[in-house]
Amino acid sequence: MNSTTISNTLLGRRSFLGVLAGGMTLSLPGWALGRSGLWLPGDDLPLTPRQSDGPFYPETAIDKQLINDTDLHQRLAGHEFAKGQVIVVAGVIKDQRGKPLAGSIVEIWQACATGRYQHSQDEKNTSLLDNNFQFWGRAITEADGKYSFKTVIPGTYPGRTARHIHYRVDSNGHPRFSTQCFFSDFGDDNARDDIYRELNPQERNQLTVQVDKPTAADEPWTGVFDIVLGK
Asked: What CA–CA distances, in Å, run from 17 to 11, 21, 72?
């Protein structure tokens, strides 16, 4: 199953669960409505919390990198795969009314599985650099607002105990947006991370990807990370 198929299946499953939950809509708090993809007519979805770019945004802009596609797990076709647990993170870029935002440029950058960035400011990090990993990716959403990246779970590194992926989104009519996502399977690591600890419970819920692990060992983990942009 390729990453596009996984993405569509994953997002479809989310929509299906939303339909099943329709009878509970009125009993859910506003932030829960946004998380589940359900909201009442006239209500706005909660904005995705902003986070800083941090120090390791690629030194050459991602759109100028020779390799910046959506599969970070393999840097070059035919070459070795990166080390680490493979995961497909997919989602929808939308506005507060739930409208998908076509033509949004979605960039991600992260550490490899050993917890090191491909960046000069991380040169004091003694962890091994995985040269088979593509440390950044770039996608452009179509009419449905969907994006999908195939990558690996990042490692931890000095100063950060939470495994995380950085996001930057450029969408017409919206200011440039940056944030980062975390992963539900690493609750203890998240709880020790200063940046994660600064988030309130609602913000943690919005930025934490719920990991789905397939039964087949050769299939990647999956997770949904929707981003809601404001004006």
From this structure: 10, 6, 29
